[in-house]
Specification:
OB fold (Dihydrolipoamide Acetyltransferase, E2P), 332 residues, 8 helices, alpha+beta, Elongation Factor Tu (Ef-tu), domain 3
Length: 332
Amino acid sequence: MRARRRGRSALRFDLMRHTAPGLFSIAALALGACTSDQPASYQGYVEGEYVHVASAVGGRLDRLLVQRGQTIDAKAPLFMLEADAETAAKQQADEQLKAAQAQLADLKLGRRNPELDVARAQLAQASAAEEQAALQLKRDEAQFEIGGIARAQLDDSRANQAIKAARVRELSGQLQVSRLPARDEQIRAQDAQVAAARAALTQSAWRLDQKRVAASQSGLVVDTLYREGEWVNAGSPVVRLLPPGQLKLRFFVPQAVAGALKPGRNVLVQCDGCGAALNASVSYIAAEPEYTPPVIYSNETRAKLVFMVEARPAPEAAQRLRPGQPVSVKLP
């Protein structure tokens, strides 16, 4: 009986010895086909880098020219704030600049022709009076020599002739000065006034331009944050835009994979409803783990470390993605 049992046990052992390696090989091949041919997949999401459009000057929102969900082009008008005070300030600055420029031109030109004509007429009148006084002086000198007049009368004639001659010299000098422009110091001072007026006009024009805000780039209007008639403080965003190139993917990889990644690496992105896999390029790899375990790392805790990776989708792929959308990323 014992010999028969030993024979059966030997037979079973011999069968296992010859068949087990074949079974193990088949299982290993099946497992390799399920794991080695497929690249690892990592979970992530889509994130948008929004542009918040605001005005540097506060005011009441008069007109909102876009609505949520609208796609706009670059330089498209977005909103307008009330601008009555800024418009009046710009007009005032414009008129002040014109006045300063006119005064500068007047200083450079000298007096006008009608003013010069008046000066010439006064000079002619003074010259005639001086000639009359000179003739009277000659007659008085002749009468004094023959004793016809007293010396006091001769002295009066001489003084009168001298006064008339001085008046001629005075008016002649004034006529020459009238033809000249203003002094260099006066012109430089007026030049400074013109520059100050031009700077004030530039500032007022800038404030007026801030009341009419346009888009600096094309994109999707994600949201509008104010209604018409509401007061908008300076710097408060009114429209939130999402430019087409401002989408990025965030996903998380184990620390063993993060060490092999480099910016520029191509990845494949899949999402619900996106159809075929999308192409993206790695743009950033976090320098520190997303979740920090205890200071002393063991073999078990190191396996739990994950690093955040950012990737930029291709322009044609970005149109099929939405912020907040979950994605699956594969490293080919």
